[in-house]
């Protein structure tokens, strides 16, 4: 039988005689639960449609306990706090400021440490929200990887006054209030083929997280990292550059768009990718940059034979095209 969960929209296939909670756990969902004797109410949900047998009762509406409830027909439940496989809960943490280091190109490496006993949970490639002095939140890609435990890293471009004020606020406080994780352009599992990572400017932060996660987990497939800037001086110092140079499967391509004649590559990022790959069909592509850059890259790679499902970017969620 099928049980549809609100507000997530998830659908559970429940076996005959199986409780809803057991089915959800079997399918890899993370659910609110406590003791299994029906007294704690941690797994409580509300029946919206359908029929449920709970002990000797046959329910057609109202509150139920998912550890005891067994569907008699397809049902709809309102059940808060259920997380799909790979989904992580959003948490708010107050993190100590460890360092705020200039990397060049007006970019600062901000290192934060989460409280002891509260390690942040996120997937490589996700982002967090950082609280400003007025209480609002701004989004920044995580440059750290989950293997770093309590340590969180951001790359902040501080050319605009708003970014400069945010950094000054964090320095004065000595800590930062963050919410995480967000974003689905991440690596919950390592891919089964080559990775192509495409970053403009501080989009490199997200790609650093992906590369460090792959390095920590022994990923041996080729990783082609394309990093774009308008001018050569816009490239900032990469914290793990020396370690990356020793990785036989990592290939870093710096591409400048506005000033040709330097010693590296010139042009647009998608042009470099198309020059290097005659066949795009086996690639797993991640892109980070402005909506205009990401969609131009998507269109160019689709024209070259890539399928849309091969490319992931947070832009697709927060700035969807009509």
Automatic annotation (TrEMBL):
Q: What is this protein called?
A: CDP-6-deoxy-delta-3,4-glucoseen reductase
Instruction: Respond yes or no to whether keyword DNA damage is given for this record.
Output: no
| Transmembrane parts of this sequence | none
What are the FAD-binding FR-type domain coordinates in residue numbering?
A: 90-188
Q: Name one GO molecular function term.
A: iron-sulfur cluster binding
Query: Which InterPro entries has this protein been placed in?
Result: 2Fe-2S_ferredoxin-like_sf, 2Fe-2S_ferredoxin-type, Beta-grasp_dom_sf, FAD-bd_FR_type, FNR_nucleotide-bd, MRET, OxRdtase_FAD/NAD-bd, Riboflavin_synthase-like_b-brl
In the record, biological process GO terms are: bioluminescence
> What's one Pfam family the UniProt record gives for this protein?
NAD_binding_1
* PANTHER family on file: NAD(P)H-FLAVIN REDUCTASE (PTHR47354:SF7), NADH OXIDOREDUCTASE HCR (PTHR47354)
Domain of life of the native organism: Bacteria
Q: Which UniProt keywords apply?
A: Luminescence, Oxidoreductase
Protein source organism: Azotobacter chroococcum NCIMB 8003
- Report the residue ranges that make up the 2Fe-2S ferredoxin-type domain in this protein: 1-83
Q: Which family does it belong to?
A: Belongs to the Fre/LuxG FAD/NAD(P) flavoprotein oxidoreductase family.
């Amino acid at each position: 039988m099928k049980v549809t969960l609100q507000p997530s929209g998830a659908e559970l296939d429940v076996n005959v005689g199986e409780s809803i909670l057991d089915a959800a756990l079997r399918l890899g969902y993370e659910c609110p639960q406590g003791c299994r004797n029906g007294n704690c109410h941690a797994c409580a949900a509300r029946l919206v449609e359908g029929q449920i047998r709970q002990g000797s009762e046959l329910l057609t509406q109202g509150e139920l306990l998912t550890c005891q409830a067994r569907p008699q027909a397809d049902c709809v439940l309102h059940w808060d706090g259920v997380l799909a496989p790979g989904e992580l809960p959003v948490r708010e943490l107050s993190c100590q400021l460890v360092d705020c280091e200039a990397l060049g190109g007006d970019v600062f490496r901000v290192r934060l440490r989460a409280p002891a006993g509260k390690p942040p949970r996120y997937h490589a490639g996700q982002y967090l929200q950082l609280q400003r002095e007025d209480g609002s939140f701004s989004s920044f890609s995580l440059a750290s990887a989950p293997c770093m435990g309590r340590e969180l890293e951001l790359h902040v471009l501080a050319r605009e006054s708003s970014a400069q004020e945010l950094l000054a606020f964090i320095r004065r406080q000595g800590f930062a209030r963050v919410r995480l994780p967000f974003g689905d352009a991440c690596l919950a599992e390592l891919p089964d083929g080559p990775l192509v990572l495409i970053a403009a400017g501080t989009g490199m932060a997200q790609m650093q997280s992906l590369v460090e996660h792959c390095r920590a987990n022994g990923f041996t497939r080729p990783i082609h990292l394309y990093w774009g800037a308008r001018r050569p001086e816009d490239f900032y110092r990469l914290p793990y550059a020396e370690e990356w140079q020793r990785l036989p499967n990592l290939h870093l391509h710096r591409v400048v768009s506005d000033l040709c004649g330097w010693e590296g590559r010139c042009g647009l990022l998608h042009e470099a990718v198309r020059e290097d790959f005659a066949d795009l069909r086996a690639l797993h592509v991640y892109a980070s940059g402005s909506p205009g850059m990401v969609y131009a890259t998507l269109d160019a790679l689709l024209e070259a034979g890539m399928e849309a499902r091969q490319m992931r970017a947070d832009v697709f969620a927060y700035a969807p095209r009509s």
